[in-house]
């Protein structure tokens, strides 16, 4: 075997090492729940009555059940996204895109580039479509005989979640553009002192362009560098073959002629109705109109608009209601992780906020030197993201503390806000909360991708920290 480049050897070592001790995301969520409950009780005094208070916070409507609506949105997105990917025109388009890559390294780099591009447009679009493209790229790699580790492609499909908050759906920058939205998070006095931050100064300002464009270009390079040359991978893992029939396949589920009854009953009116394109258009037409109205009314793309768009596209591209429903069934079976994990993280968030742990963690570096303020804020935001994996939730908790401290130390408020945003996206690479949809779509385990994601997190973190430090000089 040829001598491998250092980064490739590091990638091989890390994927083996992390795979030995990284548990299932559900186990991680349970462990974090226990740690948070104990830490919350200690923060309140450490007595039995304090533990009872913390458990009440955990199970209150603002805790355990606070993310039910979000879990429903994400489950529907996963179901409809899977159905859309199964539509014949989309399958052909994704495979055509994957065929543009001349070799394994180019294919991995292309997946990372597509994931980052889509996440810059909208994080939810990038999360689901990045995973779908990674799965398609795995099929293409198997078809062309590439000796490629499939989880590397899946990690590349998740890479965009470390870029999203500097893109067009970034929560903190969008919520800072009006005084009303700032007041909701910072309070009237602090909001008036900070003032609205225009997108020209945040998303399209020099700091964010340097950070985000740099990450956008760095992601494909990092994942290509982690890819062994053709035939040099000592332990390749091809994409798994699907054991179920294609959702668009109208043949019998077994696919064997001997199992087909010799006498097929004539097709009745109900059978024709279940296969009729009229049913598709009876729903697609008003749904498309509702999508237009929603976009006009909200002035932006939210999760409901994304789901409605996925619904319309999947319906129309399948063309028949029976094919659409079968495709959705495959996606619905993959939603268990979302339905189990999201309530646990809702409970963790409720305890972190109710006990003051989140505020304490958010302000741990508030007294830092102005030259290191944004860099240390970025690090603290990355740690806080592990317990509050929500861009909006983190901005609500950390925003008032950081923005007040920034004004006191003469730090540019825009840079302080962006430091929170970068920290929020940075540790998504370690956060099973966001990885669950990708794991469900691609069929890999968290332990299979965590090593690659960690290396990407370290490389991207160095770039972000360097840009923040230079901007503070």
From TrEMBL:
Q: Which residues cross the membrane?
A: 26-52, 64-87, 107-134, 146-164, 203-226, 278-295, 301-318, 330-352, 372-388, 449-471
Which Pfam families does the record cross-reference, listed alphabetically? SCFA_trans
Cite the entry's keywords alphabetically: Membrane, Transmembrane, Transmembrane helix
Q: Where is the composition biased (Low complexity)?
A: 242-254
Region (Disordered) location: 232-269
Task: Specify the protein name.
Answer: TIGR00366 family protein
């Amino acid at each position: 075997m040829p001598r491998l480049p250092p980064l490739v050897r590091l990638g091989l070592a890390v994927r083996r090492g992390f795979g030995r001790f990284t548990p299932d995301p559900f186990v991680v969520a349970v462990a974090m729940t226990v740690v948070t409950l104990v830490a919350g009780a200690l923060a309140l005094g450490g007595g039995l009555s304090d533990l009872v208070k913390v458990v009440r916070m955990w199970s209150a409507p603002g805790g355990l059940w606070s993310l039910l609506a979000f879990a429903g949105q994400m489950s529907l997105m996963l179901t409809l996204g899977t159905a859309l990917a199964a539509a014949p025109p989309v399958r052909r388009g994704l495979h055509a895109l994957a065929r543009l890559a001349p070799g394994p390294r180019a294919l991995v780099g292309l997946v990372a580039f597509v994931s980052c591009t889509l996440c810059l447009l909208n994080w939810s679009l990038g999360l689901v479509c990045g995973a779908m493209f990674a799965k398609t790229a795995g099929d293409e790699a198997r078809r062309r005989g590439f000796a490629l580790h499939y989880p590397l492609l899946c990690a590349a499909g998740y890479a965009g979640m470390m870029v999203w908050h500097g893109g067009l759906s970034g929560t903190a920058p969008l919520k800072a553009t009006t005084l009303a939205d700032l007041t909701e998070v910072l309070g009237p006095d602090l909001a008036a002192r900070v003032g609205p931050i225009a997108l020209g100064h945040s998303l399209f300002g020099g700091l964010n362009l340097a950070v985000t464009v740099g990450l956008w270009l760095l992601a494909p390079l990092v994942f290509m560098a982690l890819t062994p040359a053709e035939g040099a991978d000592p332990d390749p893992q091809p994409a798994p073959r699907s054991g179920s029939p294609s959702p668009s396949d109208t043949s019998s589920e077994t696919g064997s002629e001997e199992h087909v009854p010799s006498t097929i009953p004539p097709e009745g009116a109900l059978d024709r109705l279940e296969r009729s394109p009229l049913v598709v258009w009876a729903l697609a037409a008003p749904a498309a109109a509702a999508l237009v109205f929603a976009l006009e009314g909200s002035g932006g793309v939210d999760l409901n608009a994304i789901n409605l768009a996925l619904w319309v596209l999947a319906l129309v591209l399948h063309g028949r209601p029976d094919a659409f429903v079968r495709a959705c069934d495959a996606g619905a079976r993959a939603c268990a992780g979302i339905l189990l994990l999201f309530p646990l993280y809702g409970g963790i968030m409720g305890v972190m906020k109710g006990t003051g742990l989140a505020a304490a963690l958010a302000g741990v570096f508030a007294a830092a030197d102005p030259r290191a303020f944004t860099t240390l804020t970025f690090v603290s935001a990355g740690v806080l993201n592990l317990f509050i994996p929500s861009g909006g939730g983190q901005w609500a908790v950390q925003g008032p503390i950081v923005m007040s401290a920034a004004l006191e130390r003469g730090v540019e408020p825009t840079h302080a806000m962006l430091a929170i945003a970068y920290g929020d996206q940075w540790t998504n690479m370690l956060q099973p909360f966001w990885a669950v949809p990708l794991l469900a779509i691609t069929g890999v385990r968290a332990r299979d991708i965590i090593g690659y994601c960690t290396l990407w997190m370290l490389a991207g973190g160095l770039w972000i920290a360097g840009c923040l430090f230079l901007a503070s000089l």
